[in-house]
């Protein structure tokens, strides 16, 4: 069987999210580096498989799939023993609830603030006003996270799921960006520190790379 191919940029946030899940499940893959600075993601060849011209997408033995969360769900579904997508109805409902929380309450502000922090760390032009505004929004959202995480170890219960991993890498960027909003609430801090300590996250601190052996 052909090795899974991940088309993305090694330092890009969404590429790292997919890479983290692949590592979490010990799935061998080859990174096909896409040069964003040269506009490789906007070429006809690339857009044949990703019509929006965005990264990443995967080629799993001829099966093409894009959108980060869809990719991660597909990988987890192929390896159901991981439990990253629970199958028991109530556990699955709690997972879906947690995944919706990440998508609607965390990502909108975290991605905007995280992008500015990411740019700043690379020495690129960034917008401090946007970063400050979005961090304030996120800070209020994390009050609800503190309530949720005071009742369970993870967002969907006492077992880690994709819903937790979806918070990476933006949670990591924000936590390392000189703000304490990820660590000043005890339960959020516990959850956050566990996420960023996972080997799957630490494996690609210097960028996602082809990983055939674990």
From TrEMBL:
It holds the Pfam family GST_C. SUPFAM superfamilies: GST C-terminal domain-like, Thioredoxin-like. One of its GO terms (cellular component) is cytoplasm. Residues 2-83 form the GST N-terminal domain. InterPro entries: Glutathione-S-Trfase_C-like, Glutathione-S-Trfase_C_sf, Glutathione_S-Trfase, Glutathione_S-Trfase_N, GST_C, Thioredoxin-like_sf. Residues 88-214 form the GST C-terminal domain. One of its GO terms (biological process) is glutathione metabolic process. It catalyses: RX + glutathione = an S-substituted glutathione + a halide anion + H(+). One of its GO terms (molecular function) is glutathione transferase activity. Keywords: Transferase. Its EC number is 2.5.1.18. It comes from the Eukaryota. Belongs to the GST superfamily. This is glutathione transferase.
């Amino acid at each position: 069987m052909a090795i899974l191919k991940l088309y993305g940029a090694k330092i890009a946030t969404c590429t790292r999210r997919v890479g983290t899940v692949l590592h979490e499940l010990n799935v061998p893959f080859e990174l096909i580096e896409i040069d964003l600075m040269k506009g490789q993601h906007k070429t006809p060849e690339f857009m044949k498989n990703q019509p929006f011209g965005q990264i990443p997408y995967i080629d799993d033995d001829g099966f093409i799939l894009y959108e980060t969360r869809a990719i991660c769900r597909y990988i987890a579904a192929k390896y159901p023993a991981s439990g990253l997508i629970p199958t028991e109805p109530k556990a699955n409902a709690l997972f879906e609830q947690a995944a919706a929380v990440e998508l609607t309450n965390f990502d909108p502000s975290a991605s905007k603030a995280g992008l500015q922090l990411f740019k700043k760390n690379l020495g690129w032009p960034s917008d401090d006003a946007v970063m400050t505004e979005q961090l304030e929004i996120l800070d209020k959202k994390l009050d609800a996270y503190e309530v949720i995480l005071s009742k369970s170890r993870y967002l969907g219960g006492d077992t880690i799921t994709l819903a937790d991993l979806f918070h990476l890498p933006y949670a990591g960027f924000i936590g390392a960006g000189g703000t304490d909003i990820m660590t000043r609430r005890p339960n959020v801090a516990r959850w956050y520190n566990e996420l960023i300590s996972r080997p799957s996250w630490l494996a690609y601190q210097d960028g996602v790379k082809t990983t055939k052996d674990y």
